[in-house]
Amino acid sequence: MTKELAGKTAVVTGAGRGLGRSIAIYFARAGADLAICSRTMAELEAVRAEVEAEGVRCFVRAVDLSNEPATQTFCEDVLKEFGKVDVLVNNAGSELETGRIDASDPAKWWKTIEINVRGPYMVTRFLLEGISEGGKIINVTSGMGKRAGDKNSSYHISKAAMNMFTDALANELWSRKIDVNNLIPGPVATSMLNKDGPEGRRTTPEEVLERFADGVPPGFPEWERLKHPDEIGELALYMATRPVGGPTGQTFSLARRPLG
User: Fold this and answer.
1) SS3 (DSSP) at 256
2) What is the pLDDT, as a whole number, of residue 198?
3) Is 155 a catalytic residue?
4) CB-facing half-sphere around the CA of 193: CA atoms within 13 A
5) Distance CA 54, CA 188 (A)
6) How far is the C-alpha of 170 from the C-alpha of 110, rounded, in Å?
């Protein structure tokens, strides 16, 4: 892999596992220094070892992105450590309340919104002054933000809000040559698909791919394809290395179904 991000700094939230881990490792292989966060320090330390094995620096912090003071401190410390940010990937997300609205837990419903919307807003807000001219912001959203379902409303609503957040940022930041785009992965082999597994168990991508070897998870059309997180890492790297003046306010997707 060529060092297309050499000399650059990237921030990846939710980088302890799944999509965030793969994105961080792909960026490190391309030469970027990394600042990563999630809620679990043990997972972050494992990712840090993989990142630093590529010969780059890695700043880690366990952060709950629904906590404003902790989020602000993380962002301030990133800028103290690196002086600037060239790529921001708002990947951290949660799916805490998956039932119907009439049976939902209000605390879990709102916590999903806090993590999925307020979290990326705060990270972006507190880093924005330090994002370089010509930088990239990549918001990991979802096809579920494009249309409503009959369950899981907080997740649908949070991802719809992130689509609008991307559009608003793209309009505000074009004069600084900062590109802001959505990344919609489609179904990916992560622990989020292991809803009937033991509570708190982390599932490897390979386990999930084997589980759904004969078809896609429920709710997706049969022509969809379950993807390995590394495929999303590859797409994120492509987005992060577009030349200045490239696409902004757009959606890049690996989904195999209409999203509108």
Assistant:
1) coil
2) 45
3) yes
4) 26
5) 25
6) 26
Low-confidence stretches of the chain (pLDDT beneath 50): 196-199
* Catalytic residue, candidates 26, 121, 155, 238: 155
HSE-CB for 32 with a 13 A CA cutoff: 27
Residue 245 in tokens: 């003046």
User: Which pLDDT score is estimated for 101?
Assistant: 96
* Token code pair at residue 69: 């003071």
Task: Using the structure block, give the residue that is written with the tokens 């103290």.
Answer: 80
Could you give the CA distance from residue 86 to residue 193 in angstroms, rounded to a whole number? Answer: 32
Q: What is the tens place of the pLDDT at every residue in 1-52? A: 689 999 999 999 999 999 999 999 999 999 999 999 999 999 999 999 999 9
The CB-side HSE value for 34 (13 A sphere, CA atoms) comes to 35
CA distance to 32, 120, 182, per residue, from 2 (Å): 11, 29, 24
Rounded to a whole number of angstroms, the CA Rg of the chain reads 17
Q: Which one-letter amino acid corresponds to residue 257? A: R
**CB neighbour list of residue 4: distance below 8 Å, 6 or more residues apart:** 30, 31, 237, 241
Identify the burial level of 9 via C-beta atoms within 10 angstroms of its C-beta, where 0-12 means exposed, 13-18 middle and 19 or more buried. Answer: buried
**DSSP per residue over 82-117, as a string?**
HS-EEEEEE--------S-GGG--HHHHHHHHIIII
Cα→Cα distances 12→21, 26, 109, 205, Å? 8, 11, 24, 19
